[in-house]
Amino acid sequence: MEFFDTATDLGMDFLRKLEAIRTPFLDELFLLITKLGEETIPIVVMCFVLWCVNKRMACAIGVSFFLSGMSVHALKIGCRIDRPWILDPGFTIVERAREAASGYSFPSGHTQNAGSILLTLGLWNRKKTWVLPVCIFTAVLVAFSRMYLGVHTPADVTVGFIIALAASVIAAAVFGGKNKPLAQNIVLAVVIVCSGALAAYAGSLYGSGIIDSHYTADALKMAGAGIGFAVGLFVEHKYINYSEKTEKFWHQIVKFAIGLIGVLALKSGIKAIFGESLTVDFIRYFLVIVWAVDVWPFIFSKWLFKKEESDSAL
Fold first, then answer.
1. What's the 3-state SS for 92-140?
2. CA 282, CA 259: separation in Å to the nearest integer?
3. In a domain, 314, yes or no
4. 3-class DSSP state of 38
5. Among residues 173, 199, 212, which one has the least CA distance to residue 279?
6. Is the pTM higher than 0.90?
7. CB of 147 closer than 8 Å to CB of 153
8. Is residue 36, in this structure, part of any structural domain at all?
9. Which residue in 226, 225, 41 sits closest to 121, CA to CA?
10. What's the number of domains the chain is made of?
11. CB-based contact 119:163 (threshold 8 Å)
């Protein structure tokens, strides 16, 4: 407890130093950079890589994202550490960052989101010597943006970054290089187990009155998406096995555009029709990922575009 208090004091001292150097230009810059860690960017990147570039790379990105995301959500609801402006009521933040900082502070979800995507991409393409340093630098910038904006402490972003890095190393090792179907299936099974455990843990805390529905919903969305991702990949490999390649470049543009519209329509449409509840949130995110991993690939590979032999199947 004494160590945590010391780390918190040192972290708040650092945030106050950043608070003192804020300018309108830097505010706008870091508000833009921090968007790389929001939910939309990982969805767009994963869909593009999954449908148009390389399935195995997309699998690595997804595994990194979901394993690290579930770890962060479990720590958030387990530790339940307040945001910096709650820890120190005299501390001010960049107000436009408040809306996307509604959950617990530790660890940083934005840092984990951006880190898991960028670090996996960097490790996957590390033979191109410039890619990994650029990806690391960008992930660090996102982490720094969270502190500059005043919504996370150094401890929050450090742990979020470490979790993302560990998950990225595992994902790149299992899905990169020589095909390792047994290891890949084991990792996907771990994603399913961790998703179920996170859902059960969040439900238990909510049932005991320890966390409210907002925090529970965030955890259940991640759990539903994680199960949809892992189960969806098992189904895709066994029954669909589509190719990312198409005969013409414009096919890729159409494929990506229509698929992304489907993702956003499902994400918003189910909520509009059935409203918000913990059950609906879990099912909604499960179905969104199943659409991305199974339904849309089945449609474009079997009905819309000619299928070529895939060189990146699991």
1. CCCHHHCCCCCCCCCCCHHHHHHHHHHHHHHHHCCCCCCHHHHHHHHHH
2. 21
3. no
4. coil
5. 199
6. yes
7. yes
8. yes
9. 41
10. 1
11. no
The count of residues in the chain is 314
Looking at the predicted structure, is the pLDDT value of residue 275 above 50?
yes
Q: How far apart, in whole angstroms, are the C-alpha atoms of residue 174 and residue 6?
A: 38
C-alpha distance across the termini of the chain, in Å: 46
pLDDT at residue number 303: 83
Residue holding tokens 């960097």?
Answer: 122
CA distance 37 to 204: 28
User: What torsion do the CA atoms of 271, 275, 278, 284 make, to the nearest 10 degrees?
Assistant: -20
Q: What range defines the domain where residue 184 resides?
A: 2-304
DSSP characters over 185-232: HHHHHHHHHHHHHHHHHHHHHHHTTSS-HHHHHHHHHHHHHHHHHHHH
pLDDT in tens, 174-217: 998 788 889 999 999 999 999 999 999 999 999 999 999 999 99
